[in-house]
Amino acid sequence: MGRKRAAGGIEIPGWAWLVPCALVPVVLLNLGVAWLGETQVSPLSFSFLQTKARALGAYVAHRPACVLDDHPPLEPLIADAERRHGIPPGLLRALIQVESETRVHRISPAGAMGPGQLMPDTAALMRVEDPFDPATTVDGSGRYLAEQLRRFRDVRLAVAAYNAGPGSVNGRVPHNGETEFYVAKVLAAYEHTKPKAPVVAKRPAAAPKAKAPAKPASRPASSSKPPAKLASATR
C-alpha cells in the first residue's frame, strides 16, 4: 500500500509525486521573473521567493498601463530627481546604470524592481506605488539615495547603504562579497556621468618687450674759442 508501480517495474512511493508538484510553482515563478524581468535566475532557485512573487505581481499590475503608451526617456527624469533632492549631478544616473542598465521593467534575482531596483519593502517605504513607472520610481530611488547621503555624508557609504541597507553600514563599506564590488562599479560609472570640470583656456604668455636701443652718448659741446696755436720750437 502507498506505493505506485512506474514503467519498467520501478516502485515509487506515493509521497514522491509531491516533490514535482511542489517544484512546479517555484520553477514557474523563476521562469516568469527571468522572462518578464529581463534577468538571469535559476529555475530551481529557492531564494527570495516571497519578494520575487511580489515583484512579479507588481509587474503584472503595471504592464497593461504601458502596452499602448511608451515610457518617457529616463535621462530628464534622472536629472530632475538629482536637482530636486540635492544629489550630486550624475550620481543617480550612475547608480541606475549599474542597477538595471536603465531597463524600466527589470526584476533582479532577489526581487528588486525597476530602473533603481527597489526592493518591495523599500518601494513601500518610499511610497512608490508602481515601481515600474519611470517617473515615480526614479523619484523614489532619488529620495532614498538622498536620505543615505544626508545620513552618512559620504558618497561611498551612501551608495553602500543603497545596496546593503543603512543598518549594514557602520562607518565603512560592508565586505559581504557583493556591496564592495557594487560600490566600486557605481563610482567608476560616476566618473563618466558626472559633469566635466570646465577647461579654462590659458592665455599665451606675453612676449617680452623689446628694449629701446640705447641712445649714443652725447659728445661734449665744442668750445667756441679756437684752439691755441702751438708755440714754435724755433723763433
Query: What share of residues are in beta strands?
Result: under 5%
Continuous helix count: 8
Oligomerization category of the chains in this entry: single chain
Pairing-aware structural class of the strands and helices?
mainly alpha
C-alpha-based Rg, rounded: 39 Å
Low-confidence stretches: 227-235
Strand order of the largest sheet: 1-2
Helical fraction equals 40-55%
Order of helices and strands: EEHHHHHHHH
> Outline, from the CA principal axes?
elongated
The overall strand count is: 2
The largest sheet is: 2 strands, antiparallel
Mean pLDDT: 85
Distance between the termini: 176 Å
Provide an overview of this structure.
The structure is a single chain. With 235 residues, this protein is an all-alpha fold. It is 45% helix and 3% strand. A two-stranded antiparallel ribbon has the order 1-2. The chain is elongated. The relative contact order is 0.09. The C terminus is likely disordered.
Keywords:
2 strands, mainly alpha, elongated, 3% strand, disordered C terminus, 235 residues, two-stranded antiparallel sheet
Summary?
The protein is an all-alpha fold. The chain is built from eight helices and two strands; from the N terminus they run E-E-H-H-H-H-H-H-H-H. The model is unreliable at about 225-235 (pLDDT under 50).
List the helices and strands and how they pair.
Blueprint: E1 3-5, E2 11-13, H1 18-36, H2 49-62, H3 74-85, H4 91-100, H5 120-125, H6 134-152, H7 155-164, H8 179-193
Antiparallel strand pairs: 1-2
